[in-house]
Amino acid sequence: MTSLAHEDVIAAVSTPWGEGGIGIIRLSGRGSAQVVDKVFRGRSPLCSTPPWTMRHGHLVSEDGILDEVLAVRFEAPRSYTGEDSAEVHCHGGILVVQRCLNALINAGARLAEPGEFTRRAVQNGRMDLTSASGVLGMIRGYSDEALKAASRSLTGTTRREMEELLQYLISITALPEALLDHPEEELPDLELERLRTGLMDAAGRLRDLAYRGEAGMALSCGIRAALVGRPNVGKSSLLNRLVREAKAIVTPIPGTTRDLVEAAVIHKGVPLKLVDTAGIRDSQDPVEMLGIQRAKEAMVTSQIRILVLDGSTPPSQEDLKLLTSLEKPALAALNKSDKGILQEWLDLLDRPQEIPYFEISALNGDGVEELKDRMVETFFSRGSLEGAVSLFRHQVDSLKRSAQCLEEAAGASFLDAMVHLASRARQHLGAAMGRDTTEELLDSIFSNFCIGK
């Protein structure tokens, strides 16, 4: 990408919101140091201070000194964004950081949009989209596995893997393209079966990378799992047992849970975002009906559904209806094993077409760890936590489209169709690498970043 000269200076707080030892305000754009100098008082102006050198001073306003600060400037292209930048390090109180930011905005900067610093870094060629996804993964990572996935993208490992795949595609399709473009030339004979094998090999590698990208997304964003079932089967008790905390109210009265109750737990490095839902049954209570509607919506939007069943009582019509209509992937939690599971349930769930089930007790915890294991294993049945990488959703989708084109190319009957599909595969791979990105795509990607990054 070519470097872009951003005339406007953007500013934002880069440190987390709240009290801390230090607060950092970041600025970027041509004239960043000049903006700081309008409100900075030190031994010498920041503009005349050598780059990458801290300068002690005070940030001031019309009312006097705002705070004792350290200021530093960075020259393009050796900065995070690839353009002239600056930072002001002040004390980490909520009010003082906000007052310092306001002073810089009044001096000529504007408040940055979410992800605008990283967006400028991409536009200026300081990093590619794969590295940018690693930045977001580092910020959102809640486990060692998530940070490892982010590091693979941030340090360029994922980008190099994509580049190697692209060069491999170019190498195996160079001869067939030449045969079509220059039929009069004396060129080596084409080994068609070898070409088909190469295309399928590339498709497999692309799908593997896409699956590892999905694994990285799950590590960063978590797996949303809805606990569903009829009233009083133990959904709220199971939620509390899963997170080892009393998050949901538990009573013997059916219909106690009226709204969604959400909680999270990290299991084997994967954040599980658990949603306790209202018991699903026929009801005329308008409040309960609203809760039931939200429960059904959670069933649709969640990535995994956990159907909680009372194994100590015979299956009801509501249980059977949910069991047959549940969208997969799904698991059944056969609860209340402490009271004994009825054989009727085991005969029903042992049928080949039924979803996997686990005998558990939300009361004493039996089988709960095994249920969490299976929740992770179900989601990662095609991908693996080992080798997970941070990617944006559009990158994963582009990799899958590229693999699909190659698979279609390998099965094509005519050489021109094979070459055309292989060319489309390269285009999709290029899109995953961030080539020819549109403003709309960049808007979609960087809106998910925090302000200040």
A few lines on this structure:
By secondary structure, this protein is of the alpha/beta class. Helix content is 45%, strand content 18%. The chain contains 15 helices and 13 strands.
Keywords:
453 residues; alpha/beta; Gyrase A, domain 2; Four Helix Bundle (Hemerythrin (Met), subunit A); Rossmann fold; 3 domains; seven-stranded mixed sheet; six-stranded mixed sheet; flat; disordered N terminus; identical protein binding; GTPase activity; tRNA modification GTPase MnmE
Written account of the structure:
Helix 10 (317-325) links the parallel strand 11 and strand 12 (330-335). The strands form two sheets. The chain has a seven-stranded mixed beta sheet. The chain starts with 9 loop residues before the first strand and ends in a 7-residue tail after the last helix. Helix 6 runs antiparallel to helix 7 (192-221), helix 6 packs antiparallel against helix 14 (415-432) and helix 7 (192-221) runs antiparallel to helix 13 (393-411). It is an alpha/beta fold and 453 residues long. It has 15 helices and 13 strands.
Alpha-beta classification: alpha/beta
Rg computed from alpha carbons, rounded to a whole number of angstroms: 28 Å
CATH class of the largest domain: Alpha Beta
Strand order, sheet with most strands: 3-4-5-6-2-1-7
Query: What is the CATH third-level topology name of the largest domain?
Result: Rossmann fold
Write out the CATH superfamily name of the largest domain. Answer: P-loop containing nucleotide triphosphate hydrolases
Distance between the termini: 20 Å
**What fraction, in percent, of the residue positions are helical?**
40-55%
Q: Tally of extended strands?
A: 13
Mean pLDDT: 87
Number of helices: 15
- Note poorly predicted spans: 1-5
What characteristic shape results from the CA principal axes? flat
Sequence of secondary-structure elements: EEHEEEEHEHHHHHEHEEHEHEHEHHHH
Please state roughly what percent of the residues sit in beta strands, choosing from under 5%, 5-15%, 15-25%, 25-35%, 35-45% or over 45%: 15-25%
* Whole-number total of structural domains: 3
CATH architecture of the largest domain: 3-Layer(aba) Sandwich
Report the biggest beta sheet as strand number plus sense, adding barrel if it closes. Answer: 7 strands, mixed
Family: Belongs to the TRAFAC class TrmE-Era-EngA-EngB-Septin-like GTPase superfamily. TrmE GTPase family.
Cofactor: K(+)
Main location: cytoplasm
Pfam families: MMR_HSR1, MnmE_helical, TrmE_N
